[in-house]
Each structure stands twice: as structure tokens, then as C-alpha cells.
DNA sequence: GCTTAAGTTATCATATATGATAACAGGGGC
DNA sequence: GCCCCTGTTATCATATATGATAACTTAAGC
């Protein structure tokens, strides 16, 4: 029997309730999921997107990866979004 | 007679139409204006906000300044927003 | 089972954002 | 006029994001 952290995550995220908590928990996680989603919408692989952005697939992976500890710059996110046909909008919403 | 770049900017931004073009032109500019706006809404000076964020007012100025060439990290913006009572929301909107 | 495609992880080099300090500019109040 | 408050700018040191390369995992296809 192998370790099952990945399995756990997969199953947990398949549960809509857990999913929501997961997204609420850390906005950074939500970002990664959105990035992946819009890239897939564009029908691109990490490698293809990397080429458009003149970088390498490993860097795209790092950007999308939930386990990543980096806090990307706005321009990185903006360029990523643009490359897959989206534009980034920022909104500041008052707390409560 | 003194150079009037600042005057020009002040007058230009006072014009609603120019204002809109200005904001459309570069999202980065819009960001700076929003940052200043939410800080003022919180009734804080740069120095007061700097203290909350455990940094210095010169760094806050750099962040807010339109002439700044930096592309801040998401965490920087998030922490700024939180400190003045807002939360940051990211939206990816399809082009056209 | 092998191969290929897609994504991950580790590592290092480089670029850039951030922190700190100091000096300066402008405005308002007195 | 002189302060004080607020924000700006320049500079340097440090932290961190990004780029590049290589090796690895996993799944899908045959």
C-alpha cells in the first residue's frame, strides 16, 4: 500500500463541500485552480503555454502548483492570463 | 515658470474622460489609484499603514506611485488590502 | 512491456521586488 | 518666515520570483 496524500486530495476535492472550504481557505489555492482552468479552456498544455510565454514548462508547473510557496508578481499572472485569452481584473472588496 | 508635468497630470486626471482613458490604458495605473483610494478610505497615512505592515513609508509610496516600474507580488497587494480593511479578489475575464 | 505526452520536482543562475535609511519637496498652520 | 505633516525619490542590501536544465513520475496508447 502506497502513501495516499494525492489520493486523499483527489477525493477531497471531488467533494463539492470540501472543495468550497478548500477554496475559501486560502485564496492562493483558488488562484492555482483558476490558472489551470483557463489554460485548459484554451486547450493548451503547460509546454505549449510555456512556449507562448517564452519560458519553460517547469516554470508553468511551479506557477500552477498548489504546493508552490511562491507569491507571483501581478505581471506574471497578467501575462499568463493574456496568453490563454483572458484578462486579469482586480477587485478590492470591503471586509464584512 | 516651473516644469508642469505634475500640473498636467493633475489637470488631466481631473477630466473624467481623460481619467477613463488613463485607467484603460494601463491596468497598473488603475491599481495604484485603487490602492490609494482604499488607504484613504481607511483614514490612514502612508506612514501609519507602513507601521501596520511593519515596513517604511517610502516603500508604501513606491507601491502606490504611478511612476513606479515595479510589478508587485500578489501577497504584497493582499497584505496591503487586508491592512486597510479590504480583501483582494481576482477575476479572469475572457477577452472580447 | 515499451514509448510518448504531460506534468512534477530539484537545483542553480539571474532578475526583480521588498526593506531600510536618508535627503528632499510641498502644503498648511501658526 | 518657520515648523510639521505627508509623500517622494535615490540608494543600497536582502529576500524572493523567475528562467533554464535535467531527472523523475504517471497515465495512455500501442
Integer average pLDDT of chain A: 80
Task: Count every helix of chain A, treating DSSP H or I runs of 4 or more residues as helices.
Answer: 6
CATH architectural category of chain A: Orthogonal Bundle
Biggest interface, chains and residues, is: A-B, 26 and 26 residues
Report on the structure:
- The structure is a homodimer of 96-residue chains.
- Helices cover 62% and strands 9% of the residues of chain A.
- By secondary structure, chain A is mostly helical.
- Chain A has a single domain (5-83), classed as Orthogonal Bundle (434 Repressor (Amino-terminal Domain)), CATH 1.10.260.
- Chain A starts with a helix and ends with a strand.
- The model of chain A is unreliable at 1-25 (pLDDT under 50).
- At the A-B interface, helix 3, helix 6 and strand 1 of A face helix 3, helix 6 and strand 1 of B.
- The structure holds a DNA duplex (30 and 30 nucleotides).
In short:
The structure is a homodimer of 96-residue chains. Chain A has one domain (5-83): 434 Repressor (Amino-terminal Domain) (Orthogonal Bundle). In chain A, 62% of the residues lie in helices and 9% in strands.
What is the element layout, followed by pairings?
The structure is a homodimer of 96-residue chains.
Chain A: H1 5-14, H2 16-25, H3 27-41, H4 46-52, H5 57-64, H6 74-83, E1 86-94
Helix pairs in contact in A: 2-3, 4-5
Chain A binds a DNA duplex (30 and 30 nucleotides) through residues 45-47, 54-65, 67, 70-73, 76.
Amino acid at each position: 500500500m502506497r502513501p495516499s496524500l494525492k489520493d486523499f486530495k483527489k477525493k477531497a476535492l471531488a467533494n463539492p463541500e470540501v472543495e468550497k472550504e478548500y477554496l475559501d481557505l486560502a485564496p492562493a489555492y483558488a488562484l492555482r485552480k483558476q490558472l489551470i482552468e483557463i489554460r485548459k479552456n484554451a486547450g493548451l498544455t503547460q509546454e505549449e503555454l510555456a512556449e507562448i510565454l517564452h519560458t519553460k514548462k517547469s516554470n508553468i508547473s511551479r506557477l500552477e502548483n498548489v504546493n508552490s510557496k511562491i507569491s507571483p508578481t501581478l505581471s506574471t499572472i497578467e501575462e499568463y492570463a493574456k496568453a490563454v485569452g483572458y484578462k486579469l481584473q482586480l477587485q478590492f472588496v470591503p471586509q464584512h
